[in-house]
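Aim 2 progress update. The chain analyzed this quarter is reproduced below.
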Amino acid sequence: MSGFAAAASASHQQLSARGPNGAKGPAAKVLTIGQVLEQLRADFADITLSKIRYLEAEGLVEPARTSSNYRKYSADDVTRLRYVLHAQRDRFLPLRVIKEELASLDRDETPVHRPGPRALPPHPAPAGLDAILGAERVRMSRRELLTTVGLDDETLTDLEQHGLVAPIAGGGYYDSDAVLVARTVALLAGHGVQARHLRAARTVADREAGLIEAAAAPLRGQRGPDSAGRHAQTADELAALLVRLHAALLRSRLRAGRPG
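Predicted structure tokens:
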């Protein structure tokens, strides 16, 4: 059973046990938003307080409020959030579709499992960079990217200005690499690393892309129906080797700097 299928099954059992329209019983245990964040981070490393608040603003979850207007989440609310986050991450579903599925669960109905509207089938045997980074191919709008990663518009603009993230050429959509970069930068930001600190990483990537293109260039001149495929495969293999080299060198430098 996939991660989402397991979550969906658990969500259906727990959400369907709620009262009419998802109402929660008076004895439900309450959690602060910080406690909810701590629970979700085990499975969703990029979750943020702002993203939880955003999902509430969009009507995906409705925590109770104290007389002082503090949010109080029940275990059902946490299950509901897990359902939403799994649907976004694993199926790339827009919030509109997720909301429809939640409404079905609130009616004690099993929602129809739908693949993400912009998710393309993964390659059968990932290799090279696909094996390292994942083979899933997606297309997301700017709003969907912000919601999925948990960034605000100003931060994404900053990433674009530093050349770390860019929409697909000729359109206003972002691919899986942009999502991965944005998600990774968001995690780095939690350690105080900002976009401006990562310009060197972009410069290294540009130089290595040039190195790969030069090494694979002779294959472009070859004739045959598979010449383009061989060129792409060689470039991907070289890229994977450079990633491994970079990781090994980085680990070596970190170990050298540690006290014995």
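The longest helix spans residues 227-256. The chain has a mean pLDDT of 79. These observations will guide the mutagenesis experiments scheduled for the next reporting period.
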